[in-house]
Amino acid sequence: MAGDKKSLVVVESVAKTKTIYALLGEEFVVLPSAGHVVDLPKSKLGVDIDNGFEPQYLLVRERRKVVTQLQKAAADAAQVLLATDPDREGEAIAWHLAEILKKRNPNISRITFNEITREAVTRALEHPRAIDLNLVEAQKARRVMDRLVGYQVGPILWRTVSSGLSAGRVQSVALRLICEREEEIEAFVPREYWLIDGTFQGRRTEPFRARLVGVAGEEPQIPDERAAATLVATIKQQEQWTVKDIRTREVQRQPAPPFTTSTLQQDAARRFGFSTKQIMAIAQQLYEGVEIGAGGPVGLITYMRTDSVRVAEEAVTAVRAFIADNFGPNYLSSQPRRFAARKGAQDAHEAIRPTAVTRTPRALRKYLTEEQYKLYELIWQRFVASQMAPARFFQRTVDIVSSQEELYLFRVTGSEVLFRGFLQAYEEAPSEDEERQTEPSAKELENLAVGEPVILLDVTPSQHFTKPPPRYTEASLVKELDNLGIGRPSTYAVIVSTILERNYVEKRQRQLVPTELGRTVNKILVANFPDIFQVQFTARMEAELDEIEDGKKDFRQVVEGFYGPFQRALMAVQGKQEEIRASLQEKTDHRCPVCGKELVVRLGRYGRYMVCSDRPRCRFSKAVEGENVASDEKCELCGSPMVVKMSRYGRFLSCSAYPKCKNARPYKIGLKCPKPGCDGDIVERRTRRGRTFYGCSKYPKCDFVSWQEPVAGPCPSCGNNVLYKRYTKAKGTMLHCPRCEQDFATELVSSQDLVPDESRPPQPR
Q: Which H helix or E strand runs over 251?
C-alpha cells in the first residue's frame, strides 16, 4: 500500500457497504455505486443498429453525485477494488466503473465473493483479477436485445391498443404461457367419473377403507351415477370376501439439494405466500448483512442468484459435523452427498446456504424481522437436510377379492415411518397441484393374513370430475420458466413483477390470471411476432447468451442473429397497424358530441372506454355504458348515484358526476360485517402486490379481514348468516361455516375459481 493511502472498495448497495467495512477495517474505504451508474437513454433507442448494435450509454442522472464521490475517492486511493455482485450485471457495473475511474486511478482490480464473511472477503482480496469481458458482453447482449424489442414493439401497442403499453422480450413469453393456460382452462370440458370405496373389517382389525381397482380383471370404468349404483348393488350381493395378497416393502426418500434461486422462490411462495419480488428482496437483506449484536452486520446466506446445487467442501464438512453433534450420528448420511447440476445450468456460484450452519434460526430469531426469520429458517433447514440420512418408510399393500370367482378387487395401502431421517430438519411444501392422500397406517393392516376372510361393512360411491390444468401461481410459473430454460436466476422475479405491474396479469389470491388487456397484447404479439415471442426461440437466445459468457460466441454474432427475423416481423406489422387497431375496436351507434363523428369502443389499461373515431384530432372520450355499473349507493357529497369502476387496484365506487365530484370509496360486495356489534359493510380491497382480500368498511375501528370471499348464508347447520367460499383438493369447491367449522357442497365450480387459504391474513390498510 503506497504510503498512508487506503484501498477503495466499491460495492453495489449501501447495506453491503456497512457489512464489508466491518470486516475490512480502517485500511479500506468502502463506497456504494447504488447499482448501474450508466445506462441506455430513456428518450430514444440508444442502440446504433448500423454500427454493430453498439449501445450508447449515458451517465444515470441520479448517480452523478455518486460518481463524483467515487472519482474523488479513487484519486486518493492506493488501489481500486471493484466488489460488485458476482454475476453478469455486477460484472457490467464493474466494467463501467473501471472505464469512469481509470483516469483518476489506473490501478483497478476486480474481486468477487459468494458470501460476505471474513474468510470469503479475505480470500477475494488475496486473488484479485481482471474484469471478465465475456460476462460484460453477455450482459450487453441481453440489454441490447431487450431494448430493441421494448422500444420498437412498444409503439405498435400504443397505436393499436393504448398509449403507455410496453412489451418485453422475455416477459411477453411468460405472459403467453399464462394466456395459453387460461385458454386451456376455458376450453376444458369436465368429464364425470365415479370411485367406489368399501369398508372392511378383519377378525383382528378395526374397520378400514379400500378402493375398488378391478372388475373381472380390468380397471373399472364408472362414467355416471347409474353405473355406480348398479355396481354398488352387485358388490353388496357378494357374500364372502377374502384377503388374496399382502405385499410389504421398505421405501427410502432422499433429501432435496440446497436451494437454487428458482427452488427457493417456489418453496417460499408456496409455504409463506411471499411474492417472488419479496423473496428476492428478503434474501438480498440476508446476503448483504444483518446486525446480530455487538459484532456488527453479518452476511447470513450465500449469493441468492444461482442455478447451482454445488456446495463448498468446507461447508459440507461443517454441516456434517453439526448434524452428528446436534441430531446424532445415525441422522448423518453415510457419505457426503453431492448433487448433480441440471442440464443447462451455469453453475457459476454455490447453492444458497447459510454462511455458518452454527448460526441456527433460533439463535438469530431476536435479530431478524418475521419475514427474514422465515426465509433464513427455510434456507438453513434445507441445507442441513441435504446432508442427512434418507427417511425410511414401511408400506403394506392388501388386496381383497370377492370369494365368488374373484370378480371384484379392492386394494388398500398403508404406510408408517420407520426413520424420519432428513425430515427431522426439513419437509418440502406440497406443490399447488399436488393432492394430499389420506391412507391408513401400516400397523392398522398388520393383523391381516393371506386367505383370511373379511367382512364387507359398507360400499360408498363418490362422484368426481376431471379437472382442467391449474392456473399458474408465481411459484409454478417460475418452475415452468426454469424448466423451459427461459430467464435466469437474476430475472425470474423481474419477469413476474413486470407483467403484474403492467396490468397484463392480476393475482386472484395466489393465482395469475390474464386481464383483458394482457390477452389482447398477447394476441397481437403472437399473431405478428410468432417466432420472436416463442418459448423455444427465447430459450435458444438464453443459451446463446450463456455461450457469449463462455467465450464461444461474440456479442455482435448473437444480436445480429436475433435482429434479422425480428426486423422482418417488425416491418411486416408496421404496415398493418391501422388494420390491427380497427380489428380491436367495436363500432357503436353513438355520435361524438364535439365533432359528430362515430364513437368507437377501445380497450385501455384499466378497461374499455368510448372514444371519437376521429382521434387524435378529436380527443373526446367517456366511459362505456355498462362498464361502469350503476349501484344503489348515493354520493354522500353531492347526492349523485355511485357507479362501479375498475382501476389497477380493482373495483371501486366512484361518483357518477365525476369530474365535478371526485368522491370515491371501496367497492361493497353486499354483505354486512360479521363481527358482533359492527354495522360496517364488507368491501373488496387489494394489497399492494395485487392480491384481493375482503375487509370491513369501518377499518381501522373494525379489523375484520379475510382472504376468502364471504357469501350470504344461512348455514344449513347452525344458521350463521355469513359463509366463505373455499377450495381444497380433497373436496373441491365448497362453502365453509366459520362458526360450526362445517363444509357444505355448492354448485359445481371449476377448481380454478378458488384457491386454498393464504398462509396468513392480509394486513388491512
A: strand 241-253
- What's the helix, strand, coil split of the chain in %, to 5? 35, 25, 40
Of the candidates 717, 740, 737, which has an alpha carbon nearest to the alpha carbon of residue 725? 737
CA distance 604 to 553: 42
Q: Are strands 38-39 and 47-48 parallel, antiparallel or unpaired?
A: unpaired
- The answer to whether the peptide bond before residue 659 is cis (omega within 30 degrees of 0) is yes
Q: Kindly write down the DSSP assignment for every residue of 441-490, as one continuous string.
A: BGGGGTT--TT-EEEEEEEEEEEEE--PPPPPBHHHHHHHHHHHT-S-TT
Three-state DSSP at 611 gives strand
To the query of whether residue 504 is one of the catalytic residues in this protein, the response is no
- Residues in Cβ contact with 640 at an 8 Å cutoff, skipping those fewer than 6 apart: 634, 655, 656, 657, 661
Terminal alpha carbon distance of the chain: 55
Residue 505, by phi and psi: left (phi above 0), alpha (psi -120 to 50) or beta?
A: beta
Q: Report how far residue 125's alpha carbon sits from residue 281's, in angstroms, rounded to the nearest whole number.
A: 27
Spatial neighbors of 251 by CB under 8 A, at least 6 apart, are 392, 393, 394, 395, 415
CA–CA separation, 94 vs 130, rounded Å? 10
Question: Is residue 199 a contact partner of residue 207, using CB atoms and an 8 Å limit?
Answer: yes
Q: Is 366 exposed, middle or buried (0-12, 13-18, 19+ CB in 10 A)?
A: exposed
The number of helices, as runs of H, and strands, as runs of E, in the chain is 18, 33
Name, in order, each residue with C-beta under 8 angstroms of 283's C-beta and a sequence gap of 6 or more: 264, 301, 304, 352, 375
Which residues are bridge partners to 243 per DSSP? 400
Give the model confidence (pLDDT) of 590-642 as tens digits: 888 888 888 888 776 666 778 888 877 887 877 665 455 556 678 888 888 88
How big is the chain by its Cα radius of gyration, in Å? 31
Do 367 and 291 meet the contact criterion of CB atoms below 8 Å apart?
Answer: yes
For residue range 257-297, what is the model confidence (pLDDT) as tens digits? 999 999 999 999 999 989 999 999 999 999 999 998 877 78
pLDDT tens profile 573-598: 988 888 888 888 788 888 888 888 88
Residue 434 burial by Cβ neighbours in a 10 Å radius (0-12, 13-18, 19+): exposed
3-state DSSP assignment of residue 763: coil
Run of H or E including 591: strand 586-591
Question: The sheet that has 743-745: what strands, in order across it?
Answer: 710-712, 722-728, 732-736, 743-745
DSSP secondary structure letter of residue 76: T
Chain centroid to CA 171? 14
Cα separation, 37 vs 39, whole angstroms: 7
In terms of Cβ atoms closer than 10 Å to its own Cβ (0-12, 13-18, 19+), residue 436 is exposed
Neighbours of 159 (CB within 10 A): 15
Catalytic residue of the set 21, 303, 331, 472:
303
Nearest to 307 by CA among 549, 511, 97: 549
Contact 370, 361 (CB under 8 A): no
**Half-sphere exposure in the Cβ direction for 102 (13 Å, CA):** 10
Report DSSP state, residue 608: E
Of 112-116, 385-389, 413-417, 723-727, the range with the lowest mean pLDDT is 723-727
